[in-house]
Amino acid sequence: GESVGLHLPTLSVQEGDNSIINCAYSNSASDYFIWYKQESGKGPQFIIDIRSNMDKRQGQRVTVLLNKTVKHLSLQIAATQPGDSAVYFCAERDNSGYALNFGKGTSLLVTP
Amino acid sequence: GAGVSQSPRYKVTKRGQDVALRCDPISGHVSLYWYRQALGQGPEFLTYFNYEAQQDKSGLPNDRFSAERPEGSISTLTIQRTEQRDSAMYRCASSSQGLAGGGNEQFFGPGTRLTVL
Question: Is the pLDDT assigned to residue B9 strictly greater than 50?
Fold first, then answer.
C-alpha cells in the first residue's frame, strides 16, 4: 500500500548548526503534510504543515520544503538547540481526507 | 488551555480481560481520532469520529476493538478479550475542523500504555 518513510533513522548535530530531516512519500494524491515532534514520554506535537499547492513554508526556526516531482518532504531547523532533541515524524493526509499516515520517525540528537 | 487528556496513562491487564481507554478531546473539537503507536514507529490510524458519528473504523485491527463517542465529546476505545499482541501505546487526537475542514492539525494526547500479560 501507500507509505510514508524517512531516509535517516538518526541524526546527530551540534548545537547551533542547522538540521535537515528528510521524508519520502509515495501517495502522489496526498494534499496535506505535517511534521510532528515527539519527545520522550509525550504525544506528537505539531510543528508545521504544508499543502500540496505550496513548495515551501516557514515557521519560527523551521522550514518545510515539498518537492512533489520526486515526492519528497524535508524539515529544516535553524540554529538547532538541545531542546530540539526528539523524534520527528512526517505525516501525510491520506485519501480519506482526515486520517494521517505517519512515517517511522527520525531521532534528532543535539550535542553541545 | 487544557490539551487532549487520556486515562489511564498506564494499564496492565491479563490476557482475556476487557479494557476501556478514555479520551477527553480539546473542548469544542469536532473531530476525534484514535491511533496506535508501536515503539519507534509513527502512530497508526484506528478510527475517526466527526462529532458523535464514527465515520471510519477501517483501521481497527479486528472486531475485538470498538470505539464510541456518544455525546460528541469524550470517547472510549474498548478492547475485548485482550491478547498480548494488543500491547502498545494508544493515542487519541482531536482537531477543530470536521470533514469539510481544509487543514487537519491534530492535537495528540499523552497516550495510554497498554500491557497485556
Answer: yes
B34 CA to chain A: closest CA distance, Å?
Answer: 10
Q: What DSSP assignment string belongs to A41-72? A: TS--EEEEEEETT-SEEE-SSEEEEEETTTTE
Taking an 8 Å cut-off on Cβ atoms, the answer to whether B43 and A104 are in contact is no
A79: closest CA among A59, A60, A61? A61
- Does any CB of chain B come closer than 8 Å to the CB of residue A100? yes
- A49 close to A57: Cβ distance less than 8 angstroms: yes
- pLDDT band, residue A2 (cuts 50/70/90): very low
Compute CA A72 distance to the chain's CA centroid, rounded to the nearest angstrom. 10
Q: Which of B44, B55, B97, B108 to mutate to test the interface with A (most CBs of A within 10 A)?
A: B108
Q: Which residues of B touch A99 (CB under 8 A)?
A: 33, 45, 48, 56, 59
Give the residue carrying C-alpha cell 493515542: B91
Angle at the Cα of B11 from the Cα atoms of B9 and B15, rounded to 5 degrees = 160
Give burial (CB, 10 Å; 0-12/13-18/19+) of B68.
Answer: middle
